[in-house]
Amino acid sequence: MSMIGFGSSPRSAVSRAAAGAVTFGLLALVAWSSSPSKAVPDPVAIDAPASVFSSGRAMAHLARIAHTAHPTGSPEHTRVREYLMRQFRELGHDPVVQTATSYSVGPRGIPRAATVRNILVRIRGTGTGPAVLVTAHYDSAGISVGAADDGAGVVAILEAVRALGTGPSLANDVIVLISDAEELGLLGARAFADEHPWMNDVAVVLGFEMRGAAGPSIMFETGINNGWVIEAFRDADPSPLANSISWEVYRRMPNSGDFTVFKAHGKQGLIFAGIGKPNVYHQAYDSVENLSEATLQHHGVHALALLRHFGNADLTSVDAPDVNFISLPVLGMIVYGEAWNWVFGGLVVAGWALVVVVAMRRRPVAMPILAGIGASLLYLVCIPFAASGLFAWRRDDHPELGALAAGQFHSEGWYVLAIAAFALAAGALLFGLLRRRFAPEGLAAGALLIPMLLAAAATFAIPFGAMNLQWPVLAGCVAVVSLTTARQRERLSLGPWLGVTAGAVAALVVLVPLIEVLWLALPLPPLWAVLIGLTVLVLLPAIGLVSARWYVVPAIGTLAGVAFLVVADRHAAPTVERPAPATLVYLLDNEDGTAYWGSDPERTDADPGVQWVSKHVGEFGATLDGGFGLPPYSVAPAPHVEAAPPEVVLVQSDPDVTELSVRSRIGAEMMLILSVAEEMRPVAVGGKRLPEGQDHLEHWGLPSEAAGVRLDFEVPDGRDVLRFLVVEHLLRPEELLGDAYFAMPSELAPNIRRFSHRAVIRTPVAVDLRSGQVRMGD
């Protein structure tokens, strides 16, 4: 029996072979063109007209601010700030620096504080209404160069502000916030929101972030009651790209960005990020060379268009009921209200019931429907296990596993394509064999039951993301109804063929972007596999058009999957573009004078990074666990270097407060304060009270080169000596040890997950509260 039979009349029929070839080519083209990466605008040259955003001009700034790491508190961080201040002045503005102490509770439950220095610019409008805030952060994550995250956002704002200046003044004020210490817990945004008077004037926030280094700039987060701002985005932006499922998912996750702070203060806004090349995120190789200029151009297109729009809009009321939104090829951005969620949810259920009724009018289909349900359930249960097994099988060939901040492998995209190809082959094989016994329309109707149930459940569980399942299932229903009108002939009637093909196309334009974005955003192979499997189930009627033989599509899918795996394997070896991680940390204990090299104890001798470290500094033996406030390290002897201990001064000691000033004399970016007695804890930093019961404090930066961090300690009555530990983290270890130790081969990169490429110096401190005398090292 043929896979799918179609009736025809001599005048309105086409060859089945021709129709299959056209359908295959069309679906491949639609899948390729539906990728969000196709929505990225072309870069604009540096000599473009002054009124337009030019990624070329923005890249020139980026090359100056992102050629080395610049975390909060580093000398390079100061240089970047001064450069940005000069650029704003040259544009005719008057930038100011907000300096404040800010803190939040870090990922390990340790209070993380910083002396933040936000750059603020206010561009006055002609009116007196609320203001638009545009923001990005200029600190990099640790030893990351930070070209994409978030240098791209910073220079996009700088170039957009320049272009704004070529036109007439806006009605509303524009506030530019280039925030500090975002990577440390949104500390700059917290300082602005909690302490700066301009916060009261903000109505709408535009934020620019990165979680990779390529791809389109996607609007991924907005506020509650987003209807007004989403419709403004659709109308004003020449290249809007968004899907309300990202808002649904993001608000349920622990992830956060600067807009999290503004949203908590009731502000409305739109936040953009590029998520392509996630393997670059937070890495030392987040460099200008690894950033897609097209992504920067897309950032800038958003920034300039929306600043012009909101700069002249009435911002007295910026809230409206939440809406659904989705960007589709050709159609652009579609926006509709919450009530339509229930309409589409009902149509999904009614559509599937109609499919069953229409199918049963042709012939008895109870057994084929049951077979389709059973086969689809088996398929959807097996495919995520197979995807997880594929990644587990390949893990030993990818030394970067566990060292990336986003994603699992450098070459992950090839594995996703392999999963899709094998899923297509498995689905076509399973249902192709069943079609040899059961009616194809009954099988297709049964296979749609689980997608229909998931779409109906999504209507209740994630209403503003449900359209991503509702619309494909409705398209699948159209395809199955078209299938039921066909007859088993070698020529295909035009109507059923077009109906089946149109349903498949409509499903692909929704599901392909969804799968790609969720793959880049969420490192969960089982989730991607289930979505790919649902796509195959919806496409079953169209899959039958490709060939009259049940084995052709499985063969094509299998060959494609093998080809993708071969390419992935060739991308597994470490290269300059895909470096393997290596861990090398210098550990100095000023209590006993010992010094160690530390490396990752969880990696084997076959790991390229372990091999290099062992050859470079010697064999590693014992494991050092504790004392430095760090995870365990395999250690080897290291040379002892002289490093000036921290400067500790007793400022005040009375029954109510014991206040100290602590300053790193080696210019360490971070100081970790560790209590050595449970009853003597830090209770405040920079005048800000800390949560109760904390015996650790992490602080980045300094109020000034001369001033130390002000710490208040809790000291019980009758105790004359305050003891604690200062653990300094110097992210420029070459200043102590020279360049040679940390100069890695080009195919290796520091393992950011293991705090590689830093000097960590532990110093016990004892302060005599009566005399003020400070002793170090005992």
Task: Please explain how this structure is put together.
The chain is built from 21 helices and 27 strands. With 778 residues, it is of the alpha+beta class. The strands form five sheets. It has a 16-stranded mixed β-sheet that branches. It has a five-stranded antiparallel β-sheet with strand order 17-18-23-20-21, with no helix packed on it. Strands 1-11 form a two-stranded antiparallel ribbon. The longest helix is centred in the middle third of the chain and has 29 residues, at 366-394. It is globular and about 100 Å long. It starts with 12 loop residues before the first strand and ends with a strand.
User: Helices and strands: which structural class?
Assistant: alpha+beta
Which range best describes the helical content: under 10%, 10-25%, 25-40%, 40-55%, 55-70% or over 70%?
Answer: 40-55%
How many distinct beta strands?
27
Q: What fraction strand?
A: 15-25%
Taking the sheet with the most strands, its summary is: 16 strands, mixed
Average pLDDT number = 91
Distance between the termini: 86 Å
Question: What are the low-pLDDT stretches, counting only 5+ consecutive residues below 50?
Answer: 1-11
Provide a count of the helices: 21
User: What's the shape?
Assistant: globular
* Gyration radius, rounded: 30 Å
